[in-house]
Write a structure and sequence with these properties.
By secondary structure, the protein is mainly alpha-helical. The chain contains 9 helices and no strands. Helix 3 packs antiparallel against helix 8 and helix 5 packs antiparallel against helix 9. The longest helix is centred in the C-terminal third of the chain and has 27 residues.
Length: 205
């Protein structure tokens, strides 16, 4: 039974991670510029945040979820600003400095970046609340079932990021400096637009 719910959680985690958003763009760009390990670490930060929010919903931590949803404007503001910063930095990054930047920032920095970005989207909790309610987990959840689902969510999300980073990384050696410059500018612009959209939800409600 536990394995059954873990498999369902894996499907949920995979489907949540798969749509291309700012984290996906960041993962692709970093995999191309800095290698598969940095790309995977980028996605793993998002997977951890998804699992954390899934845990809040699954284990019935209503006080925590209510607080985070209540602070969603501030969190969206911080997340939007950070996305704009990342977008601008990516757009203007110098090709020669990318390898040095990767060595300096490292895996932990790549992981923490997307952990922060995903945690600043507390509306994710509402998605997990609906999912867990669909499995019959309410105010008094079955903790074993909830734990299996949350674990599955993390594994499924991590699996997607593993596939994406490893699928993109082989092109790193084949891409020319001109194309890499284009990748930086396109991905930086896309990330910046996502940041502006996040800010617009704060100021134009």
């Amino acid at each position: 039974m536990t394995l059954h719910f873990m498999l369902k959680g894996m499907a949920i985690g995979f489907s949540i991670a798969a749509p291309v958003g700012p984290i996906g763009v960041l993962c692709i760009r970093r995999s191309l510029a800095e290698g598969r390990l940095i790309g995977f670490a980028t996605g793993l930060g998002a997977a951890t945040a998804d699992a954390a929010y899934g845990g809040v919903a699954g284990f019935g931590l209503t006080a925590v979820s209510s607080f985070l949803v209540g602070q969603r404007l501030w969190l969206s503001f911080l997340g939007g600003l950070f996305l704009c910063y990342l977008g601008a930095r990516t757009f203007t990054s110098k090709l020669g400095g990318q390898a040095a930047e990767a060595r300096r920032s490292g895996v932990l920095s790549a992981y923490m970046t997307t952990l922060f970005l995903t945690l600043t989207n507390p509306m994710t909790i509402l998605s997990f609340v609906a999912v867990f309610a669909g499995f019959g987990l309410g105010a008094t959840p079955d903790y074993l079932t909830a734990g299996a689902l949350v674990t599955g969510v993390f594994i499924g999300s991590a699996l997607w990021w593993l596939l994406l980073s490893n699928g993109v990384a082989p092109f790193q050696a084949r891409i020319s400096s001109g194309w890499m410059r284009t990748v930086n500018r396109v991905s930086g612009g896309v990330i910046f637009v996502f940041g502006l959209y996040s800010l617009s939800t704060v100021f134009f409600r």
